[in-house]
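User: Here's a structure from my thesis project, written as structure tokens. My advisor, Dr. K., wants to see whether a designed sequence matches the one we expressed. Can you design one independently, without my sequence as a hint?
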């Protein structure tokens, strides 16, 4: 369906044409909302070509179309602007059409694509910490927006599961439990199905082993050898690795579930290993890769570069693969399995060089289709109030589940101040609202920028916060529930929105009709923060309408039905937008 801006653009374009002017008409939101709602600067753009003053052209066009029912007012303003106010009926028609449409008028202008979103980036055997938050939260929202646009979307956690940390764990386990059959070289039987450690033990083993490796060269060498044996297929090392992966994945899934984040694929670096040797040899054979000081590299510099880019190292002098090699081999696997049209990677923006090297090498080696889109979405750092990366009070890296619990507790303390619900409901509401506070606090910032994590500000029920948005939705739900209890009217879904009858109603409708444009902008620009800006605007517009309009107390039954229909649409749009952010909403607060 046409948006209101589409309709206005069509009418104004026809006006220019009828007056004999060729113009690329663009209608934009007014930068002076006190004067008008929309504006057109088309006359300014063509005045020189037609040797006329812009205001003369604007006057002619306005005179030609001023009677069109889409306008409440359309005027020419010197030096040649066209200022527009839409009619109450046109606005009512637009929001009614939105209410009857599954996606409120949104249509993606592109053909459906197959998209892989690579996010999460957790490491096996290590707990999630605050550094994993942004990748998970941003990636989940990007995936949902891509899917909403009609694409086939595949989210991959892409675990770090094949590096030195595995050798470190194996050797630390050997020192702690040498009696285990995995370390008996004469053992010929089947290895146990149960892991010889819990997730708590595993998470304690790795940091101890990592510290030991920095102080004990012999232990580090053992870890390197264990890693090599694992990657060469050693049966005992593979059995321990399988236990590590089973225990780690269960814990990681639980933690990601707590964030309302999910993945279609639980692949890791290990899945790319079978493709590495063939891929590198093929690049050498084709002359794409060459030897440099014993290593194998791919030159990625291009003539158009305005700075120097180092070659992409794909094989170390000792024959080992690197992160870039693994990421390239993962592309080989993904091309074979899914043949995607688009790849989206969310990671710390400090990894930009890595992705430039990987993407350029992938194109140079024809690993991906020439028309495949490779997008790196680099995000900034989550900082504490001191402006430095967020830490625990003693300076350590905070575990993500601790952060989630802290913000849940802060929200719970606010809820119980005026609690009218059971303890169980209060706890569940605090969980939902706390998670909304955390995710909205992150997503409301442009992804590429650093931001300050402020627990008090994020958990506030006032201002541009997750709890404020949820409270607005809950307020609407409460009104609708009371209306249903008091009324014998037809189903809410069947109610119609009448023409505007007050200023706050119009303000709300003008906010709502931006939905399709906002979603398309968030989709094209990979920008969840634009959805946050939008729902904050809608929430403010609704609360202005709520405070200035008697909704349930309205004595005119047709007006009341119209108000109910309008706030039903408001609720549905807010819920749909929140879902694109990966945020749930409680029934009460």
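Assistant: Designed independently from the structure alone:
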């Amino acid at each position: 369906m046409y948006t209101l801006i589409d309709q206005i653009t069509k009418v104004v374009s026809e006006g220019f044409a009828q007056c004999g002017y060729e113009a690329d008409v663009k209608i934009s939101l007014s930068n002076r909302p006190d004067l008008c709602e929309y504006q057109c600067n088309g006359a300014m753009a063509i005045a020189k070509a037609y040797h006329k003053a812009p205001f003369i052209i604007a006057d002619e066009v306005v005179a030609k179309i001023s009677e069109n029912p889409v306008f409440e007012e359309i005027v020419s303003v010197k030096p040649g602007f066209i200022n527009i106010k839409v009619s109450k009926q046109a606005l009512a028609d637009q929001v009614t059409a939105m209410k009857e449409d599954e996606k409120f008028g949104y249509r993606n202008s592109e053909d459906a694509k197959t998209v892989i979103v690579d996010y999460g980036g957790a490491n096996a055997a290590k707990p999630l910490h605050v550094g994993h938050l942004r990748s998970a939260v941003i990636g989940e929202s990007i995936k949902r927006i891509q899917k909403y646009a009609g694409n086939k979307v595949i989210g991959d956690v892409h675990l770090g599961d094949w590096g030195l940390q595995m050798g470190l764990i194996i050797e630390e386990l050997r020192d702690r439990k040498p009696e285990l059959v995995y370390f008996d070289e004469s053992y010929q039987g089947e290895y146990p199905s149960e892991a010889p450690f819990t997730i708590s033990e595993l998470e304690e083993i790795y940091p101890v082993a990592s510290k030991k490796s920095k102080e004990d060269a012999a232990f580090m060498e053992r870890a390197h050898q264990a890693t090599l044996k694992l990657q060469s297929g050693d049966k005992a090392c593979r059995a321990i690795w399988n236990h590590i992966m089973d225990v780690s994945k269960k814990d990681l899934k639980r933690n990601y579930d707590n964030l309302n984040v999910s993945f279609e694929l639980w692949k890791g670096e290990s899945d790319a290993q079978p493709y590495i040797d063939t891929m590198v040899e093929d690049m050498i054979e084709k002359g794409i890769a060459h030897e440099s000081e014993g290593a194998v590299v791919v030159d990625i510099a291009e003539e158009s570069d305005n700075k120097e880019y180092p070659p992409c190292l794909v094989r170390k002098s000792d024959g080992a693969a690197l992160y870039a090699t693994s990421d390239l081999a993962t592309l080989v696997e993904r091309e074979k399995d899914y043949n995607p049209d688009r790849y989206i990677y969310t990671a710390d923006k400090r990894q930009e060089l890595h992705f430039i090297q990987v993407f350029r090498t992938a194109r140079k080696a024809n690993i991906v289709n020439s028309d495949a889109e490779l997008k790196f979405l680099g995000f900034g750092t989550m900082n504490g109030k001191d402006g430095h990366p967020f830490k625990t009070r003693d300076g350590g890296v905070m575990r993500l589940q601790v952060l989630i619990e802290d913000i849940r507790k802060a929200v719970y303390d606010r809820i119980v101040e005026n609690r009218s619900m059971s303890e169980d409901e209060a706890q569940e509401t605090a969980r939902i609202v706390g998670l909304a506070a955390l995710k909205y606090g992150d997503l409301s910032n442009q992804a590429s920028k650093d931001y300050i994590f402020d627990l008090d500000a994020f958990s506030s029920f006032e201002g541009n916060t997750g709890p404020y948005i949820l409270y607005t939705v809950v307020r609407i739900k409460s009104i609708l529930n009371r209306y249903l209890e008091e009324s014998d009217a037809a189903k809410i879904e069947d109610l119609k929105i009448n023409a505007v009858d007050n200023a706050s109603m119009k303000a709300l409708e003008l906010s709502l009709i931006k939905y399709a444009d906002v979603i398309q902008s968030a989709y094209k620009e990979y920008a969840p923060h634009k959805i946050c800006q939008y729902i904050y605007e809608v929430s403010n517009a609704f609360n202005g309408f709520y405070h200035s309009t008697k909704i349930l107390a309205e004595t005119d039954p047709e007006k009341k039905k119209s108000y109910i229909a309008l706030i039903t649409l408001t609720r549905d749009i807010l819920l749909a937008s929140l879902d694109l952010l990966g945020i749930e909403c409680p029934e009460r607060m």
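When you compare it with your expressed construct, this may help: The mean pLDDT is 94.
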